[in-house]
Amino acid sequence: MRSPAVRMFRSLEGLFCVYKPAGVHWKLVRDTIETNLLKGVNATSAQPLPHEVRFLSNPNNKPEAAGGLALRAAAVPVLSKHPLVTGPEFQHMKVGVGHLLDASSSGVLVLAVGNGNRTLNDLYRTRTTREYTVECEFGTATHDFTQMGRVVERSTYEHITLDKMERVISMLEGANQKALRMYSSVDMSSQEAYELAVKGLLGPDGKSVPILTGLRCIHFQPPNFTLEVQCLNETQKYLRKVVHEMGLELRSTAVCKGVRRTRDGPFTLQDALTRHHWTSADVMQAIQQYRSKKRSKKGSRTLTDKAMLQTSEETLTVSQESEADKETAIAEVQCS
């Protein structure tokens, strides 16, 4: 029979996401959550101690009349199984991390517990895109493309307009669409490539160079502007470099003030647990919500497939009936 701690650990196995604050290393986030989960699992009510039969002396210390024995059989708890002797039931808990965020970035960080690490690997073998909101500023260039880096150049930016920005964005999108087709493993002239492109699934299998699948400016008020980015196989350093190159294309300089991940595959900011909710109870609830959402998506896909199959069968039946009507009409004309 499983102990309460084991049952709780089984319910914690799965995927969830947290909101990583800026200025905090992802390892500190993972270690904090591991510690909280271990405390929560080991704090569950322990099972009663097992008992064993031992022969103890009679409390009255008087020998028995029959055999002259001063012992009695008694069931006593096995103290070697006590938690104070054996220690916590769980000494370590494996918490895996998905796509990493560097220390200066913030946003959605996907984690996995137990067997959820296998699910995490399967999830990231697919073409899962990530979305970012990038805060930027014209007029400055630094050695590491961040606002806190060493300033290497300052420039003017009054000549930059939104139209010029949109032209640079269109140029970048075109170059990345070409790279997306280049690294895809399907023939671009095939029907398969067309169907994948319609569904938004066209992309490289496995590792490739970073590719921007979407880029737009959602706020433009020089010197400040904000970009919304969808990408594959990226790093936060690459996104900062893109901002720097955009500044150069606009005959100016630009620096990244902040990178925030807003979506990682199926996980969004609405699913992310903030620092005050990194407890075992909140993590368990988040994992259960992800499981139920996944089941509902599978159910909706099944219903859609059934509806499409029924529609195709009805279409086939109607076409067969129309063919039969045509043959009947032809036969009647020939008889007349």
Automatic annotation (TrEMBL):
SUPFAM superfamilies: Pseudouridine synthase. Residues 290-336 are annotated as: Disordered. Residues 291-300 have a biased composition (Basic residues). Pfam families: TruB_N. GO terms for biological process: pseudouridine synthesis; RNA processing. Residues 309-321 have a biased composition (Polar residues). Residues 91-236 form the Pseudouridine synthase II N-terminal domain. InterPro entries: PsdUridine_synth_cat_dom_sf, PsdUridine_synth_N, Trub2. One of its GO terms (molecular function) is RNA binding. Belongs to the pseudouridine synthase TruB family. This is Pseudouridine synthase II N-terminal domain-containing protein. It comes from Crenichthys baileyi (White River springfish).
